[in-house]
Amino acid sequence: MSGLARLLASVLLLLPWTVQGSDDAVLIQIGWLLSDPARPPLENIILVVRDGRITDLRDGTDRRDADAGMRQVDLKDKYVVPGFIDLHVHLTTPASPGGELRTVSQSGADLALVALELGQRNLAAGFTTVVDLGTGRRAHDEAIYALRKAIAEGRVTGPRIVVAGSPLSPTGASRTGRYRPAVDAAISPPGVCDGADDCRRVVREQIAAGADIINVYNSGSLNDPHMVQQTFTDEEFAVIIETAHALGRRVIADGHTAAGINAALRAGADIVDTAPWPDDESWRLMRANNTVFVPHLYAFEQVVGDAPESLADGTMHWIPSPIMKRLYDIKNQPYSAERAYREGVALAFGSDTGVIPHGANGGEFAELVRIGLTPAEAIGTATSVAAGALGLERELGTLEVGKVADLVAVNANPLENIRVLEHVRFVMKGGRVVRDER
Ligand SMILES: [Zn+2]
């Protein structure tokens, strides 16, 4: 992706976000602050927020006359980190049985209310920004765009949503073709395209509808009995990614097999998602292109469980057994993320909530530490690295003067015990307190 296209992507993405309602000047006293996961933590800090942005960050002993007039928030006994960014959620999908029926019975209005509730669970867990990767159904898209707008305008409380619209796949691959053709046509998988011209049109349609980022399936789904190894042709991938970049949108390549992953990487995908079965060529391409890799370690752990007995229907009790067998095999091989980390590929945070319960996102941190990341690096995957992957590094990802005031507070030092991030006590998003259990 060219420098200009990256810049354009940043500018387009941040437009609707900074206008939402926020408290006036707020002075936050912070005992321990990890303003940037790449730097050492700071102690005894004053952070001032105005109109949703950080306007001052100084030593806690440096008190000034103007401080007295501001609303005070006391986080002196707390450990504060930047608000988390999750690059992979499904806000209209509760992790429960009945998905097939819900897909054909719920309207966009139904799903907007579902997504509001599920989004709030993500936010309460400290995820102030989430990327909704879509489901490929028109009702989902209606719900997500409406909710993104209502949240951005401050009419309802929820996480900042980066919307991928409908994932792209060719006819018959991945999420398409699961129902009778007449049913599929009625619920309209809007991301389906075949051939270069058709795919160029569909990318443009997604962006016209409001997509912030494009999600393209590079292989079949783990849910497919016979998984397609590479969905689109090389030519189709090239057109999809070129069109998205020309319109200032980054591209996530979501899928599993080396053939599909590598084809998407050769075409210039910015982010690779899931990818349990890459090969040596995948690592070479990711390093060469500075691609960010988003694995979902915790989701695999949660869905499969620890005992072979859970193979019948897993711990979630809604995934059929042939698919559980595949997930079980993935879980019991070394994770590709472990290799990615050793290869020097940047890892970013994605929980796949919707497959696992919304609000359980934070379990991914401990899994990232388990495969070798330092706690600070694990926090970086959900803050600075994730912001950079979206082109939002000037807005989000670290706590610095000028940036959006998204922050999370916990009761203990996350660099000593990463699991404390699963027990968030306080969340501020864009200068507004959205959770307070101090
Ligand atoms: Zn997913």
Automatic annotation (TrEMBL):
UniProtKB keywords: Signal
Molecular function GO terms recorded: hydrolase activity, acting on carbon-nitrogen (but not peptide) bonds
UniProt signal peptide: 1-21
One Pfam short name: Amidohydro_1
Domain Amidohydrolase-related residues, every copy: 79-434
Record-linked CDD domains: Met_dep_hydrolase_A
Lineage: superkingdom: Bacteria
Name of this protein: Amidohydrolase family protein
Lineage: Bacteria, Pseudomonadati, Pseudomonadota, Gammaproteobacteria, Chromatiales
